[in-house]
Amino acid sequence: MLRTSLRRTAVGAAALALTAVGAAATTAGAATPTTSGASFVLPALVRVSVVDATHTVLDRIVLTDGHTVTTASGGTHVCDGTNGGANPSRVPTPTAALDTATRAAHSGWDGTWYDSFSDYDVTTIAGEAAAPGTYWNISVNGTSIPVGGCQFRLHTGDQVAFTLTAF
């Protein structure tokens, strides 16, 4: 049922977004809108869950894109999939989805930025901090992601989980 709901909402959101892009392109005199340029990101409708050692801290369905995020510890950085050259253009990412979900929940998250990885290390979500010997594992559709949360591309219907995990 959730997948059906996600698909229906995603189809409506995609149609609305493409209609808006088409109208903007027509107004600007462009022949055809394109989604491959760096200026346009097709958002993804995803479920974001945050689970600590004892309970679910956050569980939200959000429409997200790759965008610039700001944390108290890490500062302001782009988190749109182009980090580290992972994708040629902007895409929705797990960390950007976390940012969208925590803002929608009037909550927050924090993370340290590492220039060498061009990514954040998430340290706290909704007041739940990773203690020594633990970290926030990021998985998509039940599989840990092989790159950073600002580098992995999300698609509509993806299940994004941030789970407090022991080393």
N-end to C-end Cα span: 35 Å
Q: What name does CATH use for the topology?
A: Ferric Hydroxamate Uptake Protein, Chain A, domain 1
**Order of the strands making up the biggest sheet:** 2-1-10-8-9
Oligomer: single chain
Characterise this structure.
- The chain is of the alpha+beta class and 167 residues long.
- It has a single domain (39-166), classed as Ferric Hydroxamate Uptake Protein, Chain A, domain 1 (Beta Complex).
- It is 23% helix and 35% strand.
- The chain contains 2 helices and 10 strands.
- The chain has helices at 2-28, 94-104; strands at residues 44-51, 56-64, 67-71, 75-79, 109-114, 119-125, 128-129, 134-140, 143-144, 159-166.
- It has a 5-stranded mixed β-sheet with strand order 2-1-10-8-9. A 3-stranded antiparallel β-sheet has the order 5-6-7, with helices on one face. It has a two-stranded antiparallel sheet with strand order 3-4.
- Strand 5 and strand 6 (119-125) form a beta hairpin.
- The chain is globular and about 40 Å long.
Descriptive terms for the model:
single chain; 167 residues; alpha+beta; Ferric Hydroxamate Uptake Protein, Chain A, domain 1; three-stranded antiparallel beta sheet; globular
Short description:
The protein has 167 residues and is of the alpha+beta class.
List the SSEs and their pairings.
Blueprint: H1 2-28, E1 44-51, E2 56-64, E3 67-71, E4 75-79, H2 94-104, E5 109-114, E6 119-125, E7 128-129, E8 134-140, E9 143-144, E10 159-166
Parallel strand pairs: 1-10
Antiparallel strand pairs: 1-2, 3-4, 5-6, 6-7, 8-9, 8-10
